[in-house]
UniProtKB/TrEMBL annotation:
Keywords: Cell membrane, Ion transport, Membrane, Nickel, Nickel transport, Transmembrane, Transmembrane helix, Transport. This is Nickel import system permease protein NikB. The chain crosses the membrane at residues 12-30, 102-125, 137-157, 177-195, 235-260, 280-302. SUPFAM superfamilies: MetI-like (SSF161098). Its main location: membrane. CDD domains: TM_PBP2. Residues 98-299 form the ABC transmembrane type-1 domain. Gene3D superfamilies: MetI-like. It is a multi-pass membrane protein.
Length: 309
């Protein structure tokens, strides 16, 4: 197992290097001069001399490949540059907003699991019955309802009508419930159907019949023998969703004014703050590859067949 994880870690470096090169190139192809944008953000009417002096100070007047190597050297020292609009370090801003995004991600995953796991198992154990039909309706609503529409519904009923939850912002534990329900319910539909289909396939396997022939109780067969293998496809999909949530859910964070990474990224896009966008894309790449590595490690723990291969 250790050898496999070391091989995967070594494979991450060329992936991240390639992503950093593509990100740097795309930012250089975007319209607008970073030096002029930075001067306008400071309220300075840019002249040709001021723009050239700022470009020289930012290192933008040299060859492109040297700019990339200088930028990559700073990235390796956790320096993603400074924002054009706020003049603050991008890495510091991402770290300051990460706790809010991690909190929202954890609560959203918890909400999705609490909805999808019992409904998916119930639908598989009682196919064609009332619980299965309820699971189908819930899954259909989940995948069909846009997140912005569900956000507005939860704000209207939970915050305006009932006045139980705050409308927006991060103010206590209750403020995370509405955005977490929005994201969790949006993910739950896919997991309900995936858990149902995977568990139905596993329950038809010969080792399940052998366990029943031995006289094991049904709840032991379901929870220990069947569910462990049935959750492997869901675990892979969950890793992808967690990576996306850790990058910030732009729509939900904007609607609820949640001070996370997604809101920070959308503000940078509207402000044309290219250095922030560049750092955000690289942050997303690191998060995705690390989450994928974690999912592979969990697969090794849950499925002995992978370790044998």
């Amino acid at each position: 197992m250790l050898r496999y994880l070391l091989q995967r870690l070594l494979q991450l470096f060329p992936v991240l290097l390639g992503i950093s090169g593509i990100t740097f190139a795309l930012m250089r192809l975007t319209p607008g001069d970073p030096a002029e944008i930075m001067l306008r953000a400071d309220g300075i009417k840019p002249t040709y001399e001021a723009i050239e002096a700022t470009r020289h100070a930012m290192g933008l007047d040299g060859p492109v490949h040297m700019q990339y190597f200088h930028w990559l050297y700073r990235v390796l020292h956790l320096d993603l540059g400074h924002s054009y609009s706020s003049s603050r370090p991008v890495f510091t801003e991402l770290m300051n907003r990460s706790p809010a995004t991690v909190l929202l991600t954890g609560c959203s995953v918890l909400a999705a699991v609490l909805i999808a796991l019992p409904m998916g198992i119930g639908s598989a154990l009682y196919p064609g019955r009332l619980l299965d039909r309820m699971g189908r309706v819930c899954a259909l609503l989940s995948v069909s309802m846009p997140s912005y529409w569900l956000s507005l519904l939860l704000i209207y009923y939970g915050a305006v009508k009932l006045r139980v939850f705050p409308v927006m912002g991060m103010d206590g534990v209750s403020s995370v419930i509405l955005p977490a329900l929005t994201l969790g319910f949006g993910m739950a539909g896919v997991y309900i159907r995936l858990i149902r289909s995977s568990l139905l396939d596993v329950l038809r396997m010969p080792y399940i019949k052998a366990a029943r022939a031995k006289g094991l109780q049904e709840w032991i067969i379901i929870t220990i023998h069947a569910l462990r293998n049935a959750l492997l496809p869901s675990l892979t999909l969950l890793g992808v969703n967690i990576a996306g949530l850790l990058g910030g859910s732009v729509i939900v964070e904007t609607i609820f004014s949640w001070p996370g990474i997604g809101k920070y990224a959308i503000e940078a896009i509207f402000a044309k703050d290219y250095i922030v966008i560049q750092g955000y894309v690289l942050w997303m790449a690191v998060v995705v590859v690390l989450i994928n590595l974690t999912v592979d490690w969990l697969h090794l723990l849950l499925d002995p067949r992978i370790r044998l291969r």
